[in-house]
Amino acid sequence: MRQITGLSNPTVKYLRSLRDKKHRKREQRFMAEGLRLLTDARETGRLPETLVMAERREHHPLLDALIVDVERAGGDVIEVSEAALEKITGKENPQAVCGVFAEFDTSLGKIDRAASPLILVAQAMRDPGNLGTMLRTADAVGAGGLVLIDDCADPFSVEAVRASMGAIFTVPLAQARWDEFRGWLRAGPGQLVAASLRESHDYRTAAYAAPCFVMVGNESRGLPEEYEMECDLRVHMPMRGRADSLNAAVAGAVLAYEVLAKIG
Amino acid sequence: MRQITGLSNPTVKYLRSLRDKKHRKREQRFMAEGLRLLTDARETGRLPETLVMAERREHHPLLDALIVDVERAGGDVIEVSEAALEKITGKENPQAVCGVFAEFDTSLGKIDRAASPLILVAQAMRDPGNLGTMLRTADAVGAGGLVLIDDCADPFSVEAVRASMGAIFTVPLAQARWDEFRGWLRAGPGQLVAASLRESHDYRTAAYAAPCFVMVGNESRGLPEEYEMECDLRVHMPMRGRADSLNAAVAGAVLAYEVLAKIG
């Protein structure tokens, strides 16, 4: 463990820069905050390359275990002032510990369609909170993964990681363009399902089949028509209100739980 | 319609101050942004007291209709520079129009338990995005309202209003302390239901009964034990993952759609 003092230290600057997407992408590193998230990561076999903690902190056996594991793996364990931690995380009263992880491989090969009857797909989901929520839902339903299609929010952003409540470390994650995904999907078994108003079935009585890929679209525009028409099954949920829409992550979860009840 | 120039005009300062909860609560006013939200409001009979728009804007028949209605109702219609609109909304590239509304009465008397088989309840929900999402879900399932228990996020904050996608104007909304809510609930028919791990039933086969009050708890702590034990029915959803939890707004929606399918 080493101490770093001052706010202009190069390591502090480097850590702070990871909050910017541009730097994060260049470095292929991301940050997770809080002992709970870091412990979730450790329990799934992922350790931060760099572990940063406040000089003044309460002792906690899980933090001690984390420090031992990171040092044993050759990682960097750093103590900084609270002011430096505020600079790094961009928050007042930051959590007492955060860690820098290497981004994962998110190629489609990471998805095993035999691992679960259900896989989630999000297309052009722009809100990092929604994206993290989808990861969390994927964890809860035991999905075989989450596939991000086209220009989604960055799943490694602080907001998405936080909203995932640790699921970023546990749920297989892939990123692909539509054509690439479609080619991969059609090269094996898989039923592509989406909520749609076009020639769609009642979502409660529709014939789901494993492995079922449940796809939701962009928050404002929904799915492109071409993507809807590629689906093997289109379903609709009751809309009793005036607005005729649900939050995208909510719609995905309602559908995922229905599929889970039928073929899970 | 009147033009306001300059950023230090008292009206601009007043409008800008409504972004702060303290000022908003004192004035009992809130702001909604964008022609779509304002049109939603107009269609439900709610007009802004003050309508603010950018000098440079595209003409739109719905905006023209809004201007006519606000002026006819004696409201204030104001044109400002884009810089002033940025100051008011706190956003770069703000929407071209926003409106100031008087807060609604949110007493429990606003909830009509005979209006729908389903009413949503959120306890100590702290995230304004989640709260707006709950309003949107309440609209989609045709709920008779959303009841906010204890210290929830402010439903009239810009973030909650935005996440509600107009449902702030369409869904009956009440705010109450737990004891007040419980007294009101028990003075009439109503089944209180919550997700719980204590002596709970499978959410797919549980015996829901109208009017069914579906309650979700705080994002990190869930519901207090006392509140769970007051429920007439406790249910559980499958948790196949490692984290054993769902986003609170997601859990509420999955449960609400199940109740809707059974007794809606």
UniProtKB/TrEMBL annotation, chains A, B:
Belongs to the class IV-like SAM-binding methyltransferase superfamily. RNA methyltransferase TrmH family. This is RNA methyltransferase. GO terms for cellular component: cytoplasm. SUPFAM superfamilies: alpha/beta knot, L30e-like. GO terms for biological process: methylation; RNA processing. Residues 31-107 form the RNA 2-O ribose methyltransferase substrate binding domain. One of its GO terms (molecular function) is RNA binding. CDD domains: SpoU-like_rRNA-MTase (cd18095). Keywords: Methyltransferase, Transferase.
